[in-house]
Here is the input.
Amino acid sequence: MAATAQVKAPNVDVTIAELKKLFGDRVSTAHAVREQHGKDISFHEAHLPDAVVFVESAEEAQRVVQICARHKTPIIAFGTGTSLEGHISAPNGGISLDLSRMNKVLQVNEADLDVVVQPGVTRKQLNEYIRATGLFFPIDPGADASIGGMTSTRASGTNAVRYGTMRENVLALQVITPDGRLMRLGRRSRKSSAGYDLVKLFVGSEGTLGIITEITLRLYGIPESMVSATCAFDSLEGAVNTVIQTIQSGIPVARIELMDTETVDTVNKYSKLSLPLKSTLMLEFHGTEASTKEQAEMVQALAEENGGGHFAWTSQAEERTKMWQARHDAAWAAKAAKPGWGMWATDVCVPISRLAECILETQKDIVASGLYAPIVGHVGDGNFHLTMMVNPDDPTYLKRAEGLNDRMIARALSLGGTCTGEHGVGLGKIKFLYDEHGEAMSLMRSIKKALDPDNIMNPGKIMGPIN
Amino acid sequence: MAATAQVKAPNVDVTIAELKKLFGDRVSTAHAVREQHGKDISFHEAHLPDAVVFVESAEEAQRVVQICARHKTPIIAFGTGTSLEGHISAPNGGISLDLSRMNKVLQVNEADLDVVVQPGVTRKQLNEYIRATGLFFPIDPGADASIGGMTSTRASGTNAVRYGTMRENVLALQVITPDGRLMRLGRRSRKSSAGYDLVKLFVGSEGTLGIITEITLRLYGIPESMVSATCAFDSLEGAVNTVIQTIQSGIPVARIELMDTETVDTVNKYSKLSLPLKSTLMLEFHGTEASTKEQAEMVQALAEENGGGHFAWTSQAEERTKMWQARHDAAWAAKAAKPGWGMWATDVCVPISRLAECILETQKDIVASGLYAPIVGHVGDGNFHLTMMVNPDDPTYLKRAEGLNDRMIARALSLGGTCTGEHGVGLGKIKFLYDEHGEAMSLMRSIKKALDPDNIMNPGKIMGPIN
Here is the structure.
């Protein structure tokens, strides 16, 4: 675990020499820089790129792609390095294209509730930038990820149950194709039936079809009223059933998040909260004063029927932020509970009617495996996560984690679900993709080969070798 | 206009002979049947297929595709024939694959708010079928179209402002690829980041990538309270500005539809209503009793500021249905106003901030052109329609309509919009696609060639000749 591998791409020395001519010391072959770019925050083995180039504009990125295309050198886009399935590693070597300096908000169209950003803008930076407009961008993966990375992995988060994922919120893109052309996909209008949906094809394609250099996103008005609550339950089942009934009743809850007892314990310690040590829902309601009150009353009634205790309310911005930051830090809390251990974060998503079954079976399996693996989840979408902590000094841990992950995914697939709700495929989930998609994998391969015949864009990711 | 053209596909006699062996009298070469399958409800020239085959299962459809693939015979999927841009015509001849007998609802997953249907199920049939469950499917193009056709054209309708279009509401598909394989795309879980979004690629691909044989759709709970209203305005501008402000305020209106004075006049006559002869909004609010009341009050306040009169309310199901049926029949009303004339229905969609400008300029242009072309619109999305009526006895009409359409589309594109909000491309909008997408058209062509190298799936549609 956390080993470092390195494969040198053919001809890469020529590529690097040409890049250096253009970009000077913005091309780095330093080991530390390459290491930082070859390893995300997950347990996956690091694979170092041969060099890293820091670009500052779409035109510069285009020059990099053109040079790499000429020499068939792999290119791996890099934002903040916070992905979880080995997306940014370079198993075939090549150039890591660091887009983090392309971090400008280009256009805020307040009247249209949309914004145009460069890929290196992070979600928190964006919300900070637009705060005065009264608008916000709701998608919030755990990390303060870049919008480019979030687009590429089809990211999601706690607000998806109300506002959708990156799939629903990217209106248009500017991209560089593998042959080095810069082009626009999609328009700012809210809908269109003008041909193939190339925007949605690029969302979630993990850098395997091209480089994203501009993203147009939907924004939303900050609701008049936003109130959050926590509610502790006698059983995990009661908490999950409350979620299921809330969704089935069509209550437009903005956030409905689950933490099992283990997670509550670590979050209490890491974020200095004092939640009761029980399976807990964290909820948020958005709307007018009257409508949030009404929604909250409906969910409270459901919770009561399912063994939920009283709702601990918070409507002040500062407290709400603290509470949700604690939720976002759940994985770090788990990591802090096991210093020096590796973190393997994994997730699945199932149809809501099968959620209780999937979580309860998985919980039993965690106990049987003897692993420390707190459960958290964006349960309103049927999506939940395990943060499996792996002791590097005991080789059985990795094996046991692998078994637990394999079984959870088989369970989710058998219930009509997916092997990855929001983390993407990267290297980590390739082996499950055929079980999920079957024959359809051949269409993905055909599209990849058609758009990137030399396989230079993040080769090996999503579908493994394509020939 | 409404001429009938016919091109015989090479080798089609062999294809037809093989089909007849399998399907007997479910293969028709009768002129009347071919004519019905070669012409949609728009003004476009008819192009007759060489034969029509009526299939009753996915496996039968697969056999048809396999036979056509072997002989490189074009295949055009057919549902209800209610599309508007020449989607179902056969400019290269070939086989019309009639899927209307595949009209079963296969699975209603009440607890997951989803349903699995065959492509020939129509939207009204579906809603009738699921009525007892308390769920409904919101997407409602004017016609009682088939779900297969609606998926293929990325259809939309009056509820899209609240519930999204087919893009947001198709969860999974079963399709037959051009080489005759039957496969599944997507899963029932609400989100996934497991590779390329093939479902969204097929939604809106107009039968050019394969045949859709099963569709999994999202459903929604019928709201506790649904109230509709009409409101007449002193000016078209006032009505449009009310819409813009409603959307910008984030009021979750379920429907907000515009009719200009011309439309109100024809709708009054056709559907026996007595709306005041003014620019009019038709609205609907969904939610709890309290929240619909609150939403309605907010919109009323905005309308008042913009010269809107009083809201005429209706909450009884029967009256609401009558009112919305009248809205859906607006194109038929225009047709009835000019007996014997051809109907050319066209639409565009722009960012909401540019909607007033786009509609008002277009209205001026209608007056200047001397055409009868009532305006209706799903204005909450920035989407509006012209129903241009064309006198077949006066050749100048078609030319003038063409000019009006060309200018409206150029206007919409220059404002950041799209050349087709919800009608698709078919044959009618091909010529605008390069202006809209530029270089990105080459990606569409690459994908088409990769998945359908012999170009047998609805050839000539969306992108014209691909070589």
Observations:
- Residues 331-427 of chain A form a domain with the Alpha-Beta Plaits fold (CATH 3.30.70.2740).
- DSSP finds 17 helices and 20 strands in chain A.
